[in-house]
Each structure stands twice: as structure tokens, then as C-alpha cells.
Amino acid sequence: KRIQANTEHTLPIKENSVDAIVAVFLCNYIERLDILLSECRRVLKKDGKIIIVQSAAEVDNYHSLLEKHPAKELSLILRTILNELGFNVKIDVKDVDKKSLVFIIASLLQK
């Protein structure tokens, strides 16, 4: 199910109701990643996952004006926040169609 919402506010989704969240080419444009990821944590089921795909390369001049977090810093920022929220984080860089992409898979740690 697709939901459109302001990602820096409370998401219109019940707690513990989502199996997975996928964010593709989004996170470097979100100023308050801590709020977004905290909300993702709130709505995920106990065995839920967050999958994030980002470019490993710097963006062009136009997109850099919109960017809140440069590509070279984003993986570390995301890893730090996700770890603080109780996720196990795996980061992998792969070449896809001659572009380097960062794949971040965050799984909730079982308590």
C-alpha cells in the first residue's frame, strides 16, 4: 500500500502494522532523518525491515541545492540513527547500470 505523507511528522499509520519500508533516493533530501526513522520504527512490526537505496555519487548542481545530507556523509548518519533506534544495519555498495548505489538494510534487533 502506498501512503503519501509529510515524512518529518507523525505518519498516518498504526503502530506495529508495517512489514517493510522502502525509501529510494529520498533520505538525502530529508532534513530531520531522526524524526523520519523514529516514525518508521514506530510503525514497523517486530520483525520489520527498512530498505534504503541511495546514490553513492555526489548529485548534480541542481539537486545539490535541495540536498540536506551529502552522499558521502549519508551512510554514516543513517547507520548512527538506525543503530540508536535498535536496528541491525547492513550497508552494501553495488554498481547497477554503471552507477554506484548504496543499499542499506536495517532489521529490528530481537530482544
In short:
The protein is an alpha+beta fold and 111 residues long. The protein has helices spanning 33-43, 61-66, 71-84; strands at 18-24, 44-55, 87-96, 99-108. The chain is built from three helices and four strands; from the N terminus they run βαβααββ.
Task: Based on the model shown, name its key terms.
four-stranded mixed sheet, 4 strands, 3 helices, globular, 111 residues, alpha+beta
Describe the structure.
It is a single chain. The chain is of the alpha+beta class. Helix content is 28%, strand content 35%. The chain has three helices and four strands, in the order βαβααββ. The chain has helices spanning 33-43, 61-66, 71-84; strands at 18-24, 44-55, 87-96, 99-108. Strands 1-2-4-3 form a four-stranded mixed β-sheet. The mean pLDDT is 87.
Can you tell me the overall shape?
Answer: globular
Taking all residues together, what is the mean pLDDT? Answer: 87
**Element-by-element helix/strand order:** EHEHHEE
Radius of gyration: 14 Å
Runs with pLDDT <50, length 5+?
none
Helix content: 25-40%
Strand order, sheet with most strands:
1-2-4-3
